[in-house]
Amino acid sequence: MTETCAPKNILVTGGCGFIGSNFVHYVVNNHPETHVTVLDALTYAGNPANIAGLPADRVEFVHGDICDADLLDRLVPGHDAIVHYAAESHNDNSIANPEPFLRTNVEGTYRLLEAARKYDVRYHHISTDEVYGDLALDDPNRFTEQTPYHPSSPYSSTKAASDLLVRAWHRTYGVRATISNCSNNYGPYQHVEKFIPRQITNILTGIRPKLYGDGLNVRDWIHTDDHSSAVWTILTKGRIGETYLIGADGERNNITVLRDILEVMGQPADAFDWVKDRPGHDRRYAIDSTKLRTELGWAPEHTDFRKGLERTIAWYTEHRDWWEPTKATTEARYQQQGQ
Ligand code: NAD
Ligand code: DAU
């Protein structure tokens, strides 16, 4: 399938978070014809430094909330597409306090869909593989676009709810929407509360890494740059009303990832602590991205996980000023939870 005309003006929500900011960099570096407006509320997970230094004629930053309908009325007209990344994204936080997840993930998506409907703007929805629940370690199947929704956590249930709103707004009101469900991302600018950055920055600050449960839970890792290229492919070539799963065949259990980190960082293989498991902890995620690859011709470029991990470790080592201000608060919260 060929690329439709590249959008001239896109509104990227959550563009100061981990994956959203990587997408903004990707667009600036690869699609000179496209201007980006970033809408971000700068919660604890948003950092304007993630997009600082990008050319002012390519990227405009608007500080605001996706639940603010008046702001959306002013902002959405004039854009060709909305790419919706903004969310409360961390499972452990959703277990401690689900309320912000309901507000941002469900109400926020509703507000954006209403704006997309009112101003007839193309809408792409960023979602997660977690909406499908989990798989047993020995299940030969992976998630496909046909897998029934079966979310487990407050976070994933609000993401599932938001996906269903998108489907309804497309079918009922004809909103020109697509959805993508991606697996676990890694790379630069990821908050230190998440698994890989937490372990790297623990080692860099003399704290022992922490592994939940038995360490055998499996995640399907993809470099965030590959997520960005997949989203661009769907935005420009995807069929309206369709869902595409994004994954890079990166299944690994947590203890294997941690052992890689310890080895690259010159630590003994047993230099970590076992900690309390996450309640309701999903066992395994695995994505079959055949539809995206065969229908739209996308393929991941960063298929060497170990190399991607080494570059990510180097990035955190060289950017202490980026993560140090949030490290102590994050670890204090984990300590309170026994993790
Ligand atoms: P993140 O937590 O790093 O960033 C979220 C961003 O959204 C932050 O900049 C935050 O300030 C902003 N935000 C939160 N509430 C807002 C609101 N009400 N209004 C405006 N902005 C708000 O998240 P992430 O890991 O980059 O995830 C981005 C998206 O990708 C989410 O929708 C998530 O569900 C999805 N996703 C994440 C992964 C992953 O591995 N991290 C995998 C698949 C899908
Ligand atoms: O699958 C996509 C999802 O990936 C996204 O939708 C979420 O936004 C994103 O946060 C991520 O969710 P996970 O819960 O899989 O990611 P997290 O980094 O929190 O944890 C990864 C695995 O590592 C999980 O099995 C829990 C475990 N873990 C996590 C932390 C923070 C540990 O063992 N120790 C830790 O310190």
TrEMBL record:
It is an enzyme of class 4 (lyase). One of its GO terms (molecular function) is dTDP-glucose 4,6-dehydratase activity. The keyword Aminoacyl-tRNA synthetase does not apply. Keywords: Lyase, NAD. It comes from the Bacteria. Residues 11-311 form the NAD(P)-binding domain. Its EC number is 4.2.1.46. GO terms for biological process: nucleotide-sugar metabolic process. It comes from Bifidobacterium pullorum subsp. gallinarum. Its cofactor is NAD(+). This is dTDP-glucose 4,6-dehydratase. InterPro entries: dTDP_Gluc_deHydtase, NAD(P)-bd_dom, NAD(P)-bd_dom_sf. Belongs to the NAD(P)-dependent epimerase/dehydratase family. dTDP-glucose dehydratase subfamily. It catalyses: dTDP-alpha-D-glucose = dTDP-4-dehydro-6-deoxy-alpha-D-glucose + H2O. The keyword NADP does not apply.
